[in-house]
Each structure stands twice: as C-alpha cells, then as structure tokens.
Amino acid sequence: MHVLIFMMKSSNRSQPLPIDTMGLFQSGFGTPAIFTEQFPTFIRKTLKHSFPSITGRNRFLSAIIYLSILTAAGCKDPDELGLSVLPATDLLGTEYSDTASVVAFTVKEDSLRTDELSVQLIGGYIDPYFGKSNSECYSEVLLQGTPSFSSLQVSDSLVLKLFYKGYYGDTNTLQTINVYRMTESMTADSIYYSNKTFTTEVDPLGTLTYYPMPNTPVVIDSDTVAPQLRIPISMILADSLVALNGSATYQSNEAWREYFKGIKIAINEPTAVGQGCVNAFDLFNAKMTLYYRDTSDLPQSYSWVLTGAKSNHFTHDYTGFPVGLQLQDSSYADTLTCLQGMAGLKTKFYLPYLEHLKDSGNVVVNRAQLKVTLQANSTTPYAAPTSLLIVAIDADGTTTSFPADYYEPTGFFGGTISDRTYTFNLTRHANRILSGAQGNYGYYLVVTGSSIQASRAILGSGKNADYPIKLELYYTRISQ
C-alpha cells in the first residue's frame, strides 16, 4: 500500500491527512486553502478539466485520489494499478479498444508427460474435422501381499477390472478392447511421455467386445458395483499363475516384475467417421483378479493391483481431414483455429501490436481480457473442453511460462467456458509488456489437462468475421 501525507488547514489547526491509493481518507476537515494557494498549478488545471462539476472541498478530495493513483503508477510494479481501477468510469479518461490484431493458427502439440496421472485414457474416435485419434495404456500389475493357493481345487476365471471415470465421444459405438502382455519393463521412478511405446507379445491375453457404459452400475451375482469394464483374461495365464504358488516369484514385487512386466490395454480403432469413444479409467483402483474354489468348494479370490508405473500413448492421423489441410497450408480455413487434448493440437497466437499502445505516451492498462469463441454447431457429438489455458512463449522460442495473472487468486485468470466463449484476464501481463518487464514472443492456447482430456474445440481465429479471437483493453494514458 502506498501512503501520501498532506498538510491541510482548517479554521484552527493543521494536521496530516493520510491518503492511500484506493482513495480512502479521514473526514472532519474544513475546505482546504491549499487547493487555491499551494496546490501545484498543473493539478488544479487537470482537475478543472477532469472534474468540472466538483468544487471546493470535494474537488480537493478528488485531487488527492487522483494524485494517489498517479503515484501508484510510478512504483516499481507498474502492472499493479489496473487491478484496482474499474473500467466502468471515465474519471481518468479511460479508453477502450478491441481492434488490436490477434494472429492465430493451428499447430501440433508436442508430446506430453503421461506418467503419474489421475486417470488413463483408452479408446479412439474418428472426428469429421480432426480425423483419427487413439489412446492406449501401459501399466505394471503388482502383487498385493503374497498369494497362496495351497488350498486351490480349481481356477474359475481371471478378470481385469477397470473402473470408469468418464468418457468422450459416442458410447453407441461397439468397441473391441485387447490386453497384451508387455515384454519391456517400466519403472515407477521414470518419466514417460505420450510418444513412448513398450514392446508386447503379439497375441492378446484377453479380448472383449462391448458398448461403453460409463454411467451404468454392474450387477455381479446379487451385488451392484460401480460402473466398470470386466475383461476376461486367458486361462492359460491363470493356470501359469497358480503353478507359481510357493515360488520365489511371489516373494517380492521385484521378483514378480521379472516374470510379469505389465500389460498394454488398447482398442481396435473405429472404421467410420463419427464413430468411437475414449474412456477414462481409474487404474489406481483397477485389479486383475483370479477367482477359484478351494478344496471345500468355497469361492476364493486373489487380486493383483495396477498401482505401479503406468503411461499413455497417444496417436493422431489428420490426413485428408480439414485440420490436416490447415496444418499443411495456413491459409486453408484460416478463419478457424483448433485445439485438441491427448497431445493433439494447440493454437499459437501473437499480439503483435500491443506495444503500440504507448506510441503516443505512457499508458496503464486497467483491464485486459482475451476472448476466444467456439464456432457455432461444432460441439456435437464431440463436446468442447470445459476450460483452456494460455502459456507465454519465452525468448528462446521453445520454453513457456504462465502469464503473471495466472498466479492471482483462484478464478481470476479465467479460461472457463461461458456462452461459448473462453475469457482470460491478462491485465498484469499486459502492463508488464508495456513496462518492458515482460517479452511478447507469442502464446499457446491449450486444453487444460491435455494428458487426461480427449476433448477438442473449433474456435474463431483473428480473421473470423463473426467470432474472432480478440483482446479487449481498457487503458489510461499517463502524461509525462
């Protein structure tokens, strides 16, 4: 908080009046003679011009507020002023602009980190605009305590249980999911990215053809359990697991990993445009369960868990689809720009003329908002992301960082959707650019949580006549 101390006269005393940058003051004083006798001439002229209907004591108090704001503008953090000045008033001569050019186009996303995620994506779809997208998952399958099958009479089944956490796409598309045994190891302390694959056996351990039912509880015997996918696994593997009873393989997970390195879970890709679905699964609670009967013919079970290392592998094929043509030729459908999760696509954009605001003198940005709008009728059946994120490109052109506004209290930065539009507050960032504290090298607009989101969006670019991406600015010119 910046505090100015002024002396002002009343009929019988002089005492200090503390004024802060929010214009707060202590009342109880008479009309100040300082306004007519001691106040700087340029301030009196400015006030007469800016506050023609305010006189006497009120004009003096307005002057103090005015000086406080000017003082704040000269502090070390020039981006602070805009956060406390409302653009609805023109007391400071606030100007508005939404015509600054925004250059935006679609580019491919880099690979993203996919280990240690809250959910894993499995499935695929063929979008009429974006083309083919697919996600498969790799995971360790670990011991949960030492198994003992000493009383085993007969094994009944081996089942992989995956619990739904969501979906994206058409659940009416029939899908076939396959489980493969990995021949390459994973490690929990390694970092894996979305372009990483692991070798597996050719033939699957298990296969299931199904309609995704992510919101439908499953009835097992007389019990109703959470929505899940239950994939039958080969009884050959089941019998081999039983045959290891009492061996060193079951004495530790280190020994177990040498025998069973993990599984790959993938679907057969859809074949028709408009078909397909990507399911989100909670693999931390997934299990591979062996069901068997003991010598008394009582049902028993033992479960392995998927709590170890895991990662996703994403692929996209845009060939022959509108997005693919955009990527080949930036002038194709250049009124639109696209985003896609699963390390698919992002929008790169520039604010090339932002610095020109100060061509005719210093300015302070009171509010800067970037608004991006979805193309009409572009979200069926593939819904748009609920939120987007902006990152600023650094001077080296490869690394990125968050705008300063990102670190404000939760909700200030924005990026959530409302009435088809995503709005971002970039006030601090804009002021930092104008003050020279921040470079302006371009930006990426991305799907929030792209590693666990399959959603995509078609947005208006800067050239869109109806719904362009635009930067709205409220700013005040500061005289030298």
Please state the structural category.
mainly beta
Summarize the biggest pleated sheet.
10 strands, antiparallel
- Assembly state (oligomeric): single chain
Q: Give the end-to-end Cα distance, rounded to a whole number of Å.
A: 23 Å
Tally the structural domains. 3
Number of helices: 7
What percent of residues adopt helix (DSSP H or I)? 10-25%
Strand content: 35-45%
Shape: elongated
Produce a short descriptive summary.
This protein has helices at 34-37, 41-50, 56-73, 235-243, 253-259, 322-328, 427-435; strands spanning 3-9, 14-20, 95-97, 103-108, 120-127, 131-139, 152-169, 175-181, 206-210, 218-220, 223-225, 228-233, 263-267, 276-294, 299-305, 310-317, 336-340, 345-350, 362-373, 388-393, 400-401, 414-418, 421-425, 443-447, 456-460, 470-478. By secondary structure, it is mainly beta.
Describe the structure.
The chain has helices spanning 34-37, 41-50, 56-73, 235-243, 253-259, 322-328, 427-435, and strands at 3-9, 14-20, 95-97, 103-108, 120-127, 131-139, 152-169, 175-181, 206-210, 218-220, 223-225, 228-233, 263-267, 276-294, 299-305, 310-317, 336-340, 345-350, 362-373, 388-393, 400-401, 414-418, 421-425, 443-447, 456-460, 470-478. The protein has 480 residues and is mostly beta strands. The chain has three domains: 3-73, no CATH class; 96-108 and 344-478, Immunoglobulin-like (Sandwich); 120-317, no CATH class. Strands 5, 6, 7, 8, 9, 12, 13, 14, 15 and 16 form a ten-stranded antiparallel sheet that branches. Strands 3-26-19-23-22 form a five-stranded antiparallel sheet. Residues 1-57 and 59-91 have low confidence and may be disordered.
